[in-house]
Amino acid sequence: MLTNSEWLGINELSLLIHGTDTIRDMQRYFLEALRNIVPFERAAFFLFHEETGGLLVLQSPFCIHMNPEIVKAYGRLINTNGICRRVISLRRTMAYRSSDLVTPDEEVTDSVTEVRKSFLLPNEVSFYSGIVLADDRKLLGEVVLYRTDRQRDFTDNEMEILDRLKDHLAIRLRRERKECQVQQHEKDQEESQLIAMGLTPRESEIASLVMKQYSTEDISRHLVISQYTTKKHLHHIFAKLGVSSRLQLMEAIRTWERARE
Questions:
Q1: What is the pLDDT of residue 17?
Q2: What is residue 261's predicted lDDT score, i.e. its pLDDT?
């Protein structure tokens, strides 16, 4: 049975999950707050991107006391190792712990040995638990918590806490994914219109950011290019559309859009 303080912690975490502005901040604040009611030594919270063929790519990982190279090793294991894929392959939101996943007979199998040598031992991990997050059989992300041999296994109470938080996390990630899809659709439509005006895909991307009033520095940072390259693209855009300033560029695009309506 959960204690009053554990229920209070669950309520606070639920509010944090839904009330934090960005996913990145939510990942960080969630793990930091979760540690108060479900202690752990190391942790990772990452998002999934599933490529053609079912390959899972870890995205935007937020880690506590985790070596980035070891996180990459986990990314390889979830695509190749039967034990690591056991929960993920169910493609549903669920909480789990390692002691429930592996039977005594499996302790000496190659899959368990591989996980132990390539992931658990380098991180000094003895116990782990986590939450797989999914929506309509689409994998969204995973939270993984690790404990060393200086700590005990995760208790039934702690697993109940994770179980009560799992749906809140899945709802937040599902909402974020849908919002991103809408934004991407709008972005694709806008850039396709700019391409129809005679711009290249990269020029269309930059012109779209100009319409959002990004500065040259902002555009360069957003696209991870130098300011020199950004200015060069802007020069080409101005020449193609017969304008000489950002204001004229924005007006030319609006005029073209109105004519297409």
A1: 97
A2: 65
Q: Report the CATH number of the 197-260 domain.
A: 1.10.10.10
Query: What's the pLDDT at 142?
Result: 96
Residue with tokens 């554990």: 6
The residue length of the chain stands at 261
pLDDT in tens, 48-76: 988 877 888 888 889 998 877 778 888 88
The C-alpha atoms of residue 121 and residue 129 are separated, in whole angstroms, by 16
C-alpha R_g of the chain:
24
Fold matches, 4-179 and 197-260: no
Q: Kindly give the parts of the chain with pLDDT less than 50.
A: none
Which of these, 196, 218, 200, lies nearest to 209 by C-alpha position?
A: 218
Helix locations, the chain, DSSP H: 4-19, 23-34, 68-80, 82-88, 98-101, 110-115, 156-196, 201-211, 216-223, 227-241, 246-260
Tell me the pTM: 0.70
The CATH number given to 4-179 is: 3.30.450.40
**46, two tokens:** 């990452």
Separation CA 75–CA 225 (nearest Å): 28
Domain boundaries along the sequence of the chain = 4-179, 197-260
Looking at residue 84, what is its pLDDT?
82
